[in-house]
User: Fold Baculoviral IAP repeat-containing protein 5b from Gymnodraco acuticeps.
Amino acid sequence: MTSIDVLSTRFAAFDKMHSYESREQSYVDWPFREDCYCTPEKMAKAGFVHCPSENEPDVACCFFCLIELEGWEPDDDPMSEHLKRSPNCGFLTSKKDFTEMTAADFYHMERERLKVYLKKTCHKKMAYLREDIDRTLGRLTSQLDI
Ligand SMILES: [Zn+2]
Assistant:
Protein backbone atom coordinates (compact mmCIF):
# COMPACT_ATOMS: atom_id res chain seq x y z
CA MET A 1 0.00 0.00 0.00
CA THR A 2 1.24 3.48 -0.87
CA SER A 3 2.22 5.52 2.17
CA ILE A 4 1.00 9.05 2.84
CA ASP A 5 4.55 10.33 2.24
CA VAL A 6 4.69 8.71 -1.20
CA LEU A 7 1.23 10.07 -2.05
CA SER A 8 2.28 13.57 -0.98
CA THR A 9 5.50 13.45 -2.99
CA ARG A 10 3.68 12.24 -6.10
CA PHE A 11 0.87 14.76 -5.74
CA ALA A 12 3.38 17.63 -5.54
CA ALA A 13 5.46 16.39 -8.47
CA PHE A 14 2.53 15.49 -10.73
CA ASP A 15 1.39 19.09 -11.26
CA LYS A 16 3.79 18.97 -14.22
CA MET A 17 2.27 15.76 -15.55
CA HIS A 18 -0.83 17.22 -17.17
CA SER A 19 1.14 17.17 -20.42
CA TYR A 20 1.48 13.96 -22.39
CA GLU A 21 5.14 14.70 -23.20
CA SER A 22 6.09 15.02 -19.53
CA ARG A 23 4.41 11.72 -18.68
CA GLU A 24 6.00 9.98 -21.68
CA GLN A 25 9.48 11.17 -20.61
CA SER A 26 9.09 9.38 -17.26
CA TYR A 27 9.33 5.96 -18.99
CA VAL A 28 13.13 5.84 -19.26
CA ASP A 29 13.51 2.30 -17.89
CA TRP A 30 10.06 0.92 -18.75
CA PRO A 31 10.33 -2.81 -19.48
CA PHE A 32 7.64 -2.98 -22.22
CA ARG A 33 8.65 -1.28 -25.46
CA GLU A 34 7.82 -3.37 -28.52
CA ASP A 35 5.29 -6.02 -29.55
CA CYS A 36 2.98 -5.17 -26.69
CA TYR A 37 0.06 -2.92 -25.74
CA CYS A 38 1.55 -1.16 -22.74
CA THR A 39 4.23 0.89 -24.51
CA PRO A 40 5.43 4.16 -22.94
CA GLU A 41 3.29 6.09 -25.48
CA LYS A 42 0.09 4.25 -24.56
CA MET A 43 0.86 4.41 -20.83
CA ALA A 44 1.38 8.18 -21.04
CA LYS A 45 -1.74 8.66 -23.21
CA ALA A 46 -3.75 6.84 -20.54
CA GLY A 47 -2.51 9.31 -17.89
CA PHE A 48 0.11 7.13 -16.23
CA VAL A 49 3.51 8.25 -14.96
CA HIS A 50 6.27 5.66 -14.47
CA CYS A 51 7.13 5.48 -10.74
CA PRO A 52 9.62 2.60 -10.43
CA SER A 53 11.18 1.48 -7.18
CA GLU A 54 13.96 -1.00 -6.52
CA ASN A 55 11.54 -3.89 -5.93
CA GLU A 56 8.76 -2.77 -8.29
CA PRO A 57 10.19 -1.69 -11.65
CA ASP A 58 6.80 -1.51 -13.41
CA VAL A 59 4.77 0.71 -11.07
CA ALA A 60 2.71 3.30 -12.92
CA CYS A 61 0.57 5.93 -11.25
CA CYS A 62 -2.13 8.16 -12.73
CA PHE A 63 -1.10 11.81 -12.29
CA PHE A 64 -4.72 12.77 -11.60
CA CYS A 65 -6.47 10.06 -9.53
CA LEU A 66 -3.17 8.71 -8.11
CA ILE A 67 -4.21 5.10 -8.69
CA GLU A 68 -1.13 2.90 -8.68
CA LEU A 69 -0.91 -0.17 -10.90
CA GLU A 70 1.85 -2.75 -11.17
CA GLY A 71 2.35 -6.26 -12.49
CA TRP A 72 1.76 -5.16 -16.08
CA GLU A 73 1.53 -7.85 -18.76
CA PRO A 74 2.44 -7.18 -22.42
CA ASP A 75 -1.22 -7.64 -23.44
CA ASP A 76 -2.57 -5.13 -20.91
CA ASP A 77 -4.19 -2.08 -22.47
CA PRO A 78 -3.34 0.93 -20.24
CA MET A 79 -6.52 2.88 -21.07
CA SER A 80 -8.77 -0.15 -20.40
CA GLU A 81 -6.99 -0.90 -17.12
CA HIS A 82 -7.33 2.72 -16.03
CA LEU A 83 -11.05 2.81 -16.93
CA LYS A 84 -11.69 -0.51 -15.20
CA ARG A 85 -9.98 0.44 -11.92
CA SER A 86 -10.76 4.16 -11.72
CA PRO A 87 -13.80 4.88 -13.93
CA ASN A 88 -14.46 8.31 -12.35
CA CYS A 89 -10.92 9.64 -12.83
CA GLY A 90 -11.12 13.33 -13.79
CA PHE A 91 -8.43 12.89 -16.44
CA LEU A 92 -10.43 10.15 -18.18
CA THR A 93 -13.70 12.11 -18.03
CA SER A 94 -12.09 15.39 -19.15
CA LYS A 95 -13.18 16.47 -22.61
CA LYS A 96 -10.18 18.68 -23.33
CA ASP A 97 -6.59 17.79 -24.07
CA PHE A 98 -3.99 19.66 -21.98
CA THR A 99 -2.87 21.64 -25.06
CA GLU A 100 -6.43 22.99 -25.50
CA MET A 101 -6.95 24.01 -21.87
CA THR A 102 -7.41 27.59 -20.74
CA ALA A 103 -5.84 28.75 -17.48
CA ALA A 104 -9.28 28.43 -15.86
CA ASP A 105 -9.59 24.82 -17.12
CA PHE A 106 -6.15 24.02 -15.71
CA TYR A 107 -6.95 25.45 -12.27
CA HIS A 108 -10.26 23.60 -12.23
CA MET A 109 -8.38 20.34 -12.96
CA GLU A 110 -5.83 21.14 -10.26
CA ARG A 111 -8.59 21.81 -7.74
CA GLU A 112 -10.19 18.44 -8.57
CA ARG A 113 -6.78 16.74 -8.34
CA LEU A 114 -6.30 18.31 -4.89
CA LYS A 115 -9.69 16.96 -3.76
CA VAL A 116 -8.68 13.44 -4.85
CA TYR A 117 -5.38 13.73 -2.99
CA LEU A 118 -7.03 15.03 0.22
CA LYS A 119 -9.67 12.28 0.10
CA LYS A 120 -7.05 9.54 -0.31
CA THR A 121 -4.87 10.99 2.45
CA CYS A 122 -7.85 11.27 4.83
CA HIS A 123 -8.87 7.66 4.14
CA LYS A 124 -5.34 6.46 4.92
CA LYS A 125 -5.17 8.51 8.12
CA MET A 126 -8.55 7.14 9.23
CA ALA A 127 -7.33 3.58 8.54
CA TYR A 128 -4.20 4.20 10.64
CA LEU A 129 -6.34 5.65 13.44
CA ARG A 130 -8.69 2.62 13.33
CA GLU A 131 -5.71 0.25 13.59
CA ASP A 132 -4.37 2.25 16.53
CA ILE A 133 -7.75 2.18 18.30
CA ASP A 134 -8.05 -1.60 17.74
CA ARG A 135 -4.53 -2.19 19.13
CA THR A 136 -5.21 -0.05 22.20
CA LEU A 137 -8.58 -1.69 22.75
CA GLY A 138 -6.95 -5.12 22.48
CA ARG A 139 -4.30 -4.17 25.06
CA LEU A 140 -6.89 -2.78 27.49
CA THR A 141 -9.16 -5.79 27.07
CA SER A 142 -6.31 -8.23 27.73
CA GLN A 143 -5.46 -6.33 30.94
CA LEU A 144 -9.06 -6.61 32.14
CA ASP A 145 -9.12 -10.36 31.51
CA ILE A 146 -6.34 -11.02 34.06
ZN1 LIG B 1 -6.69 8.39 -13.14
